[in-house]
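@channel sequence for tomorrow's demo:
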Amino acid sequence: MHLFSRFSERLRTEMIFTFPHLMDHFLQCESSAPAPFLMTQVPDFKSFVQGYMCDGQETLIGHSKPLQFRFFMQGELPVMQYKIHPKSPDWMPRERGIELWKKDATGKPKLPTGCPNVVPIADYVRDSPMVIQGIRGYLEFWQKWSTKKGKEHDSTKYIEPVILYWKNMIDELQKPTNKYTGEYAGFWPKTAGTHRMQQIEEEVDKFQGCEEWNNHYVGPQAGKPQEAFRPQIDVRKGDFVLVRPADPEYPIWLGVAESDVDVDSSSPNHKKIFIQYWAPKHRKRNPTIHERYEGCWNKNWCCNPADPKRWELVDSVLWSWAPRGGILPEAIKIPAIIVEKAQASLIGAIE
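structure tokens (generated this afternoon):
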């Protein structure tokens, strides 16, 4: 981490034009002179473990967050535990590690054998056309800059090689990739023997990590506890929000949060969000409230500009979710899973 902090600080004050230039700066940022190299192939580990890891309701979830993990043997089973924060006192789950592999008829884990195949890293660049488009924009900038300065300008002689470099880069990216796959020899690290995790005495710290993550779950999908909704943490600007209606004539209110939660304790809108309300669509030109909101959980909703935007207490929000792709649609139907969660929250609030 110390190395990359130095590297990051260096990049704040110096301009980088090419990958070799970037690697050169990386070499100079630490006295130990790290040796970077360009990866051209990677082990296809995903295919290697396919069919062996738990799936279905036993699929592992929640592990993609930057947590701390440890792997060890529990009897004959390889298992995993995690920590929300390195200084948390306990590894989770406390009683037993999380099983990662399927089992055979005898209860032993099914484990892949051999080594993973190697595939060209270019196969993992799924958005290659977008990458090329971005490089072309960068290239166009320097071409215009060079033309404006003129060939006789002192700086042009430094930029011309940069232009040539990125032209060649585009040519290389447009070439068909080598589809050869072979065994990734020597992939597995060698150890002195099977390591069994021992309990380590650790310094107990009162800090338990980020409040938002304290209840983060890692484990089989079937074992995930019922999701808790925390309006003051979970509601974000741009989210759709389902609001507990103040008038019993309305089953639910739907709107879009046009602000984050106001956390300023001196503000008149403390713990409130600014909402643009939407309304269910209806074929009639001027339907009654009952006609418009009848069956509203399954109707299409659209923005209702006639309804003034209002500040509402964020604790009145039953559930929120971000629009797909972050783009606000012209109309929306409340997703079934959101309906289920909001109705359960609404019933719980009434009880």
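heads up for whoever presents: The CA atoms of residues 163 and 243 lie 55 Å apart.
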